[in-house]
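Progress narrative, Year 2. Work on Ribosomal protein/NADH dehydrogenase domain-containing protein from Phyllosticta capitalensis advanced from sequence curation to structure prediction during this period.
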Amino acid sequence: MPTIQQRMFKLKEMLWIRMGPGSATIPKNVKSISLRLARKIDNGHRGPKKFVREVLPRLKFRNPWLPIKVDRTAENHEAAVMTIHFKGEAGKREPVRIDMKFKPHEEIWAALAEAARAEEIPPTEVEIEETEQIKKRNDQSKVVRELQLAANARIKREKELLEAAKQQTNAALASEQS
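Result:
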């Protein structure tokens, strides 16, 4: 059973959702965002899928009021499109369509941020410090894991040698008795 400290560390690893691409506030004049892409990454849908997996959770975390619809029923040969709908203003602004096919997720985020006039939220010093602590702990865990694997391999090899020696001894005793 994990300790409280281990549980808290796992919670701190959720820090990724608070910083990075997509960690921005969207103005209230944006009514909704809808995306249409294919399930598979073939034929130019890799960037849109990565955008949905990495950037969209951050965007939703910072803007819980914003309805975001993701439709994954498109075929791979169809376009991957994002549509940004705006609330009715005096000029009745038209929805903005962003073609996402064959674009990396950073480029898709930049187009969305520009079209919606999103304001990036920089990470605080506490978040940066916690991120460094997480990286440091992960590096330490990697070293410990490698040492444990080496120790397990050594113990396994010793057991194999011991078993081989027992078999040789039993074979020698059986040959003496016959």
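Residues 20-120 form a domain with the Glutaredoxin fold (CATH 3.40.30.10). The radius of gyration is 27 Å.
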